[in-house]
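Q: Protein A?
A:
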Amino acid sequence: MARIADPRPAAEPGSAVQQQRRAAILQATAALSAQKPADQVQMNEVARAAGVALGTLYRYFPSKTHLFVGLMAERVDRMQDGIHRRKAPAGTAADRVFDVLSRATRPMLRQPHLTAAMLNSLNTADATAVAEVGHIDRQVRSMLLTICGVDDPGPQDISLMRLVQHTWHGILQSSLNGRISADETEDEIQLACRLILAPLA
């Protein structure tokens, strides 16, 4: 399990070269973590695979938690890009949210080590120390509200989507732990969407 992040800020890449280095670090992390559990992935191994100095790695990602949360943020950004490119699915708000989450879930379950590392890091990270935690929460909530057609969400709308996010993470964790099958995972995500989002029908 990734350890809780130290309370130090991560540097933001400014130039194109710095952005490329950060992207290379995330790519190397994804490749290594697809093969073995997070606790077996070493920071110096990531730096070597990314072709950067260890100090450069720690500049952008002060801990493994920063690293895996950063990777999760990148995946969420891709998820949003995919939603923008695709035609909005038909059906109720629950149907549309389920469509988005099920599409996101399938590739995540095909990479259990990586997904477990990202979820564990997201769950243990201190949002005051790892800025991307808040970005991920807001981004997912915003895209789900948008897909539901809620342009001006009130407190209840936000709370409902937050509950969907928490429940989705819990179902994913159960699937990764081998407690439910892939089919049960999809069924439970669908049921959760229907129950939680009933007020939006």
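Q: Protein B?
A:
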Amino acid sequence: MLQTFAPLIAAAADLDLSDTAAARAELNQRFDPGSEEARSLNASLVEHLEAGRIAERGELPVCWGRVTKALPESRDLSIDVVHMNGPGPRHRHPRGEVNYCIALEGEPTFDGQPAGWVVMPPDSVHVPTVAGGRMLIVYLLPGGEMEFLKDG
């Protein structure tokens, strides 16, 4: 399964997330969400979703699943996949977060941003929210670091 995510791992590994605009530009350079390679990856991820191999836990508005914890083979990135059509749990990213977002239905946005790469800087806090449809989101977390927070 990890091999499926290899292009995303390669794009996100060793990236400085402190400047989110620069990080997103670099991600688009490394792995263009509009490319043929991305369309092939997206189709594979949708197949995995429909077969119940990813985002297999919970129910909408948030279904989730862990692909791997942060390992040398994943270049110190944990990988979670989430299928969303609403808000998720509030959390903090000690080292930042890289999200690869795929539109599944409608014209969804993730925290107000369209499908593609979305970057959260180190120490950022948010309630991840998909609006306007459904998305499949691959969360890549440096060191696997994320802290769930109480609402408020």
